[in-house]
Amino acid sequence: MNATIRDVAREARVSVATVSRALNGTGNVAEAVRVRVLEAATRLRYTPHAAARSLSSRRTQTLGVVLPDLHGEFFSELVRGIDLVARQHGLHLLVSSYHGHPDEQGAALRAMRGRVDGLLVLAPFAAEATLKAIAGSLSPLLPAVLINAGRDVPGYAALRVDNHGGAMAMVAHLAERGRGPIAFIAGPPDNVEAQERQRGYVDALARHRPGQPPWIVEGDFSEASGHRAAQVLLAATPPQAVFAANDMMALGCMFALAERGVRVPGEIAVAGFDDIPLARYVRPSLTTMQVDIAALGSRAARRLLAQMHGEPDPGDDTVRPQLVVRDSTRSVEPP
């Protein structure tokens, strides 16, 4: 049979309450007593009952993570970063997804109530009704951090990526590499990250290529949509450069160009955004705007823990992407 807390108390010659305080790190317990309790627990191979522990402490030792999707390297890297911080603090993760349907996000959030001590929510949808639904689904007593939310939700911390500034930096890089047109593969129209990257493309194009009208092809952040976009671009007079709103579309685009025998970057330069791990291992390696995705997850988790411990929140927090130049644009010589 599994050892109980009473067995540990008997072995260590202390009360059950003292065992609880020693194992949970709460209350005044003399160091010699704490060591004796831990040694007894180790000898008996005692494992605290998670449900009972949660009832007594009113803590679940769990962080909730609600994402638009679970597919793709971006989400796996984000969760990896969150989990690294959680494990450092002896916490576990409960992860849920609403599979890209904003109307299902409220249900995912409500399902977390009573199961987690804090929430991390990736909420990149721009519609005001969606943000109101998020606010209505969150418990005012539950600490939460919103990642890349379309708008502020009063009372909740926000962590954002400077998508507009990152896109402007990428277009400036591509504009330096030649005189031809720069096309853009857009992301989902209701996604604020996609909107901000497209806005950065348009603003930078007006600054660096004032005579060129925006050339925007529809996409949805998937590899397949990048593949389709490349076919659309090749059906016209091809551009000199393609900037995809994320790396997955850039990789799909490069695959389509390779199928048609188009050399990258010799004939068309290709760039993305995010710097997913795969970006550096394809051939040619992909130029991109680097968002350290795992670090973004860790940063969000640390902010959530600070909230849970009653520390003051610093307010809006913005992550600045960095340009990483690789082979997919490097070989294109300036005019």
UniProtKB/TrEMBL annotation:
<keyword id="KW-0805">Transcription regulation</keyword>
<dbReference type="InterPro" id="IPR000843">
    <property type="entry name" value="HTH_LacI"/>
</dbReference>
<feature type="region of interest" description="Disordered">
    <location>
        <begin position="308"/>
        <end position="335"/>
    </location>
</feature>
<dbReference type="InterPro" id="IPR028082">
    <property type="entry name" value="Peripla_BP_I"/>
</dbReference>
<dbReference type="Pfam" id="PF00356">
    <property type="entry name" value="LacI"/>
</dbReference>
<dbReference type="InterPro" id="IPR010982">
    <property type="entry name" value="Lambda_DNA-bd_dom_sf"/>
</dbReference>
<dbReference type="GO" id="GO:0000976">
    <property type="term" value="F:transcription cis-regulatory region binding"/>
</dbReference>
<dbReference type="GO" id="GO:0003700">
    <property type="term" value="F:DNA-binding transcription factor activity"/>
</dbReference>
<protein>
    <submittedName>
        <fullName>LacI family transcriptional regulator</fullName>
    </submittedName>
</protein>
<dbReference type="Pfam" id="PF13377">
    <property type="entry name" value="Peripla_BP_3"/>
</dbReference>
<keyword id="KW-0238">DNA-binding</keyword>
<dbReference type="InterPro" id="IPR046335">
    <property type="entry name" value="LacI/GalR-like_sensor"/>
</dbReference>
<keyword id="KW-0804">Transcription</keyword>
<keyword id="KW-0678">Repressor</keyword>
<feature type="domain" description="HTH lacI-type">
    <location>
        <begin position="3"/>
        <end position="57"/>
    </location>
</feature>
